[in-house]
Structure formats: structure tokens, C-alpha cells
Amino acid sequence: MKINAKTLICAAALALPFTASAEQFSYRYVDVAHFPKAEIDLPGGDVDGDGIQLRGSLPVYQNIFALAEFVDLDLDNGVDATRFLIGAGAYWPLGPSLDLVVRGGVVKYEVDFGRFDDDDTGLFAGVRLRSLVAPKVEVEGGVEHMAVKVAGIDSDTYLIGEGRYNFTPQFSAGVLVTLGGDTNLIGAQARFSF
Hints:
Layout (H helix, E strand, L loop, with lengths): L4 H10 L14 E14 L2 E17 L2 E12 L3 E17 L2 E16 L2 E19 L2 E11 L8 E11 L4 E9 L3 E11 L1
Antiparallel strand pairs: 1-2, 1-10, 2-3, 3-4, 4-5, 5-6, 6-7, 7-8, 8-9, 9-10
């Protein structure tokens, strides 16, 4: 499924969340996600499967944070895909419960299929809005571009969406979606903020 950048930007603009109560967001967290629905478009056709994601973020100076993310997908026909990214981000409050977040860094992508093994290292950059839309309900959405070419997966821009319910200030759970380009992921996540 190919979605062009204009469509992604328009969809993100239409999905801008409205601000709710005043609260600060934590950029000091670790989270884990399970993707029961994962799909990659390869030259021979789509392959489906599932996977996991591990992520972490740690403030390093005022509104700047370091981040790391690992995704491991186990797909049909013995196809395995892994993605590791490391980088930094920054956020700017646009309101009492609305932040503009930018992220960027290095991404390494690898696809294995039997004896076939292809990998590439490139850059990623993205922009998101993070908002509290109800006292304990948080949404995050935006676009992210990954400049890698591996196993027919070409540099693409993705629409990112996340929703979390904050059970306590430290623990939240919710869903996340990545759509567009050659990779589509739908999953559930749990986050621990510290």
C-alpha cells in the first residue's frame, strides 16, 4: 500500500488533537509493543506476520532527549526483518497539554530470508504532536521518513499514530499504528515512565 507524502501530511493535520487539562508529558520511559498484525511489501509480494518493539527515551538536556528503538518482525515464508534506530529528539510545548515533538537519527534495517540477507543503514526524521485529550488519555500522531533501501523496501514516509491510557503517572497502555510505504504495523503497547 503506497501513500504519498501529501496525503500523510494532510491526514496528520486533520488529526490534530485538541488540548484538554494541563499536564506535563514524560520523556523518560521504556515501553514494549506487540504487533499481532505486521506486513511488509517485498518485490515478490506482501508478507504478513507478527513482531515486537522495544523503545526507550531519556532526557539529556532541558527539552532534548535521546532515544533508541528495536523492532523484530517474524513474517510468513521464513522472512525475518529487524530495525534498530538510535537518535535524539526535542519537544516544544504548544499549550498546557500539547507538545510538538521532532525526532531524528540513524536507522539500520535488515531483512533475512533463507540464505538471502540484505541490510542498509540510513537516516530517519519525523515530526509529531503529543496531546492529552482527556484527563488520562494521551494521543500522539505525525509523520516519519526513513531513508533506507533494503530487500526492495525503499525510502518511505509513514503515518504514525499512538494512543495511551495513563493508569498511573508511571504506567500506561494503548495502541500504536504505522501505515504507509512498504511497512504496516498495528499493535498494543505498555509503557513505564520513571
